[in-house]
């Protein structure tokens, strides 16, 4: 397949800073959409991949799976997007489309292996890998390109493509509704979106945090109450009262204190800790028929539903806009939790 050279920013080794690179993108095929990238969010997964924390990185790595831009070219078979449209690309750019998961619009669980936006084998260029949104443009199959409501702030919409759908999907799947008591554990990039979504769905939202100083911001974002998990008396007061808990803690942690908060038949969903958890007591779930579940991003249909909901309720992420030249400093700040609540790169700075 013919390719063209595109300016990008990436890493050539796990110990190296990100720097300017030239990468190869395929030319627009019959089913493809070419997007000039305006903004790209910075996800902690970008850092894990650049630094090979998960031991699966192939270099060079060009991260970025929270992509917002305008369509500049479409293939002859494309019917869902046209030149000038505001669009997004999230964590997925391909899947087999034929397995049971894909047929249920769950491309993230493709049985033949989803193609991720970066650091995956490219299905279109033999021997190549996918490169993400820290770049001038991208070419993506139209099925994996999302419509972005024009009323939303473009830069602040970028993190919805990962942080947004990661928190929306479990709230939607477990049918959180008006009047439910919903706990959101952790007020970071994921947690702040969980609070916004649960509030917009009409739930009674309780921000659960170890840091009392986060309480004021949690209420600004839509939490009705703040529960400090280190406060034993407060934890006792809330015991057995939650219909649903969204757990965004990104590292291994004690589960029992949070499981005690659930009602009978209630669910806690993990979206953060992709690593071993501390042992928990089986009685914590047996005594109350409680559930611990997990959730990974969302399929394309669900991501579109999330974006449409955001357009209707004017929901975006709280962001700090940066130039691409500041990306290495931004990575250090993400690791120190020094961002409220997501970095987004203004890709015009790549010029």
Secondary structure elements and their pairing?
Blueprint: E1 3-10, E2 19-26, E3 32-41, H1 44-50, E4 67-74, E5 86-89, E6 92-94, H2 100-103, E7 115-116, E8 137-141, E9 146-147, H3 154-157, H4 163-173, E10 181-185, H5 189-200, E11 204-209, H6 215-221, E12 225-228, H7 232-237, E13 242-247, H8 256-259, E14 262-270, H9 283-286, E15 291-294, H10 300-313, E16 319-323, H11 327-335, E17 342-346
Parallel strand pairs: 10-11, 10-13, 11-12, 13-14, 14-15, 16-17
Antiparallel strand pairs: 1-2, 3-4, 3-8, 3-17, 4-5, 5-9, 6-7
Helix pairs in contact: 4-5
Observed structural traits:
351 residues, alpha/beta, Quinone Oxidoreductase, Chain A, domain 1, Rossmann fold, 2 domains, seven-stranded mixed β-sheet, six-stranded parallel β-sheet, 11 helices, 17 strands, 23% helix, globular
Commentary on this structure:
- The longest helix has 14 residues, at 300-313.
- The protein has helices at 44-50, 100-103, 154-157, 163-173, 189-200, 215-221, 232-237, 256-259, 283-286, 300-313, 327-335; strands at residues 3-10, 19-26, 32-41, 67-74, 86-89, 92-94, 115-116, 137-141, 146-147, 181-185, 204-209, 225-228, 242-247, 262-270, 291-294, 319-323, 342-346.
- The model has no long low-confidence stretch (mean pLDDT 97).
- The protein has 351 residues and is of the alpha/beta class.
- β16, α11 and β17 form a beta-alpha-beta unit.
- α4 (163-173) crosses α5.
- It folds into 2 domains: 3-161 and 317-350, Alpha-Beta Complex (Quinone Oxidoreductase, Chain A, domain 1), CATH 3.90.180; 164-294, NAD(P)-binding Rossmann-like Domain (Rossmann fold), CATH 3.40.50.720.
- The two termini are 27 Å apart.
- The protein is built from 11 helices and 17 strands.
- The chain is globular.
- The strands form 4 sheets. Strands 3, 4, 5, 8, 9, 16 and 17 form a 7-stranded mixed sheet that branches.
């Amino acid at each position: 397949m013919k390719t063209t050279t595109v300016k990008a920013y990436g890493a050539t080794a796990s110990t190296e800073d990100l720097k300017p690179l030239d990468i190869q993108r395929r030319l627009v095929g019959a089913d493809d959409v070419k997007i000039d990238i305006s903004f790209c969010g910075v996800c902690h997964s970008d850092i894990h991949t650049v630094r090979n924390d998960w031991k699966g990185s192939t270099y060079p790595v060009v991260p970025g799976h929270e992509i917002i831009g305008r369509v500049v070219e479409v293939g002859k078979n494309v019917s869902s997007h046209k030149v000038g449209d505001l669009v997004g690309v999230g964590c997925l750019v391909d899947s087999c489309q034929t397995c049971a998961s894909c047929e249920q619009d769950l491309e993230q669980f493709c049985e033949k292996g989803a193609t991720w936006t970066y650091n995956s084998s490219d299905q279109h260029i033999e021997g190549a890998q996918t490169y993400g949104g820290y770049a001038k443009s991208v070419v993506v199959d139209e099925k994996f390109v999302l419509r972005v409501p024009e009323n939303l702030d473009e830069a602040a919409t970028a993190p919805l493509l990962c942080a947004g759908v990661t928190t929306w999907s479990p709230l939607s799947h477990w049918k959180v509704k008006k009047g439910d008591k919903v706990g959101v554990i952790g007020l970071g990039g994921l947690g702040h979106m969980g609070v916004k979504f649960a509030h917009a769905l009409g739930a009674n939202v309780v921000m659960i945090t170890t840091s009392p100083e986060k309480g004021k911001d949690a209420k600004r974002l839509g939490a009705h109450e703040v529960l400090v998990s280190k406060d034993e008396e407060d934890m006792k007061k809330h015991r057995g009262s939650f219909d649903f808990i969204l757990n965004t803690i990104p590292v291994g942690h004690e589960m029992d204190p949070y499981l005690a908060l659930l009602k009978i038949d209630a669910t806690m969903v993990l979206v953060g800790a992709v690593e071993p958890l501390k042992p928990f007591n089986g009685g914590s779930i047996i005594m109350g028929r409680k559930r611990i579940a997990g959730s990974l991003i969302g399929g394309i249909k669900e991501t579109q539903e999330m974006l449409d909901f955001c357009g209707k309720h004017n929901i975006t992420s709280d962001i700090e806009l940066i130039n691409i030249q500041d990306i290495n400093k931004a990575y250090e700040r993400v690791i120190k939790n020094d961002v409220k609540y997501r970095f987004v790169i203004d890709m015009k700075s790549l010029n």
